[in-house]
Amino acid sequence: MKTLIKNGTIVNEGQQQKADVLVIDDRIVSILPSGITTVECDIIIDATDCYVLPGIIDTHVHFREPGLTHKGDMHSESLAALAGGVTSVFEMPNTQPQTVTLAAWENKIQMAQSRMHVNYAFFPGATNDNLEELRRFDIHKIPGIKLFMGSSTGNMLVDKEQALDGIFSLASELKLPLMAHCEDTNLINQHSQYYKQLTGSDDPDVKLHPLIRDEEVCVQSTELAVKLARRHETYLHVAHISTQKELHLLGGNVTGEATLAHLLFSVPDYCTLGTRIKCNPAVKTTLDRNALRKALSDGTITTVATDHAPHTLMEKQGGALKAMSGMPMVQFSLVSMLSLVDDGVLTIEQLVRLMCHNPSQLFSIRERGFLREGYKADITIVKRSDTPWTLDSTMIKSKCGWSPLEGRQFHWSVVTTLVNGVSGVVAQKNFGEPIEFR
After folding, report:
1. Residue pair 34/16 in contact by the 8 Å Cβ criterion
2. Claim: this prediction has a pTM higher than 0.85
3. The predicted structure's pLDDT at residue 52
4. What's the pLDDT tens digit per position in 72-128?
5. CA 45 to CA 381: how far, in whole Å?
6. How many Å separate Cα 233 from the centre of its chain?
7. In terms of DSSP bridges, do strands 379-390 and 50-54 run parallel, antiparallel, or are they unpaired?
8. Strand-pair partners of 363
9. Are the beta carbons of 190 and 158 closer than 8 angstroms?
10. Which of 239, 279, 282, 230 is nearest to 258 (CA)?
11. What pLDDT was estimated at residue 156?
């Protein structure tokens, strides 16, 4: 199968150029100035007035399968990813059962082969006592190790000093990135008790969520993680950074991820969106949000992901303690980031670096994340229109059926997504492949 993407503006490796992309089967064969390619093709995609990007790599999603499929599953959430221009995802281990054994991981891989519409990898999760089990994994088939240093959805907290020391040491030994969720659970519990007593409620208003899971909760845990990473020379990637202070802890073998929730929302949004923007770590102040935005362009933040975490609207009922934490974001992450490009927060070249190039390099992904000859043909085509469109629930492909972005207007649209050379508009087939590393 030969596919030609013609007349588009390529955004790749810090540059823009008018070029055509020739794809044969699942590989990019050539990238040439527009109009030069004369090969007869089976499919021609006219990308006039469009930007042609490497496929977006979302390194932080929760697709809820197995065990939590009333919220979402591999089929529904990968279709949402595909619709949003995402061609590869790393899925988290807090499913049921948790992905903390090789057998559970292999079960996920087997399910994904018939259900995933985008490329996939699954993080094994660390626990207080599964070090030897983690040694059994093939480092060429996993992105790294996921560590929960704070209680969150799934109850995979690792809080024993000896266990933490062993996990950081193992990740260093195996030369695997360690992605950590950093929140101090003891502080969260203290704050929860304080606000229960203050309000006389077992479930204080969600507006108190950023006070229960405040800056101190995040910074203390991140400081501990950084200390351990420096001690063991572990490559630490701090997930979903939410505070300005944490940014100052990054550097060297410690990098940081920003997620859409903390880039788009801030404390005032609790008044209108309530528990729809409740996530862990909590959405923080406008000053924190603005600092994170600045960190996108100055290189402090290394990757942007979604922490896509669907729940039903019934599960989002309640307050700061009882409403489930997490929101579905994977379908609209790219158009949201492109809106930040329009706002002057970052350039489209920086967007590609954060969402394509850096994830590929940080996690040592093979042959994805760049538009290069010989690489897998994971390609996203987007277009900007002067006439905005409004997000409504009928557009949502996630099984949960809602988005905190409903009612927002966007000027950007995803025109076409190619996964391994196949356009997402082709039937409802599964073109995703397991991602290879190192």
Report:
1. no
2. yes
3. 98
4. 999 999 999 999 999 999 999 999 999 999 999 999 999 999 899 999 999 999 999
5. 10
6. 25
7. antiparallel
8. none
9. no
10. 239
11. 80
429 vs 300, more confident: 300
- Segment 349-366 mean pLDDT: 98
Token digits of residue 308: 């896509």
Q: What is the mean pLDDT of residues 151-162?
A: 75
Confidence of residue 240 (pLDDT cuts 50, 70, 90): very high
Residue 426 pLDDT exceeds 70: no
Decide if 75 contacts 321 (C-beta within 8 A). Answer: no
pLDDT at 153 over 90: no
How far is residue 131's CA from residue 100's CA, in Å, rounded to a whole number? 10
Structure tokens at 134: 């983690």
SS (H, E, C) the chain: CEEEEEEEEEEECCEEEEEEEEEECCEEEEEEECCCCCCCCCEEEECCCEEEEECEEEEEECCCCCCCCCCCCHHHHHHHHHHCCEEEEEECCCCCCCCCCHHHHHHHHHHHCCCCCCEEEECCECCCCCHHHHCCCCCCCCCCEEEECCCCCCCCECCCHHHHHHHHHHHHHHCCCEEEECCCHHHHHHHHHHHHHHHCCCCCCHHHHHHHCCHHHHHHHHHHHHHHHHHHCCCEEECCCCCHHHHCCCECCEEEEEEHHHHHCCHHHHHHHHHHHCCCCCCCCHHHHHHHHHHHHCCCCCEEECCECCCCCCCCCCCCCCCCCCECCHHHHHHHHHHHHHCCCCCHHHHHHHHHHHHHHHCCECCCCCCCCCCECCEEEEEEEEEEEECCHHHCCCCCCCCCCCCCEEEEEEEEEEECCEECCCCCCCCCCECCEC
Please write down the HEC assignment for all residues of 10-39: EEECCEEEEEEEEEECCEEEEEEECCCCCC
* pLDDT tier at 179, thresholds 50, 70, 90: very high
**The one-letter amino acid at 155:** N
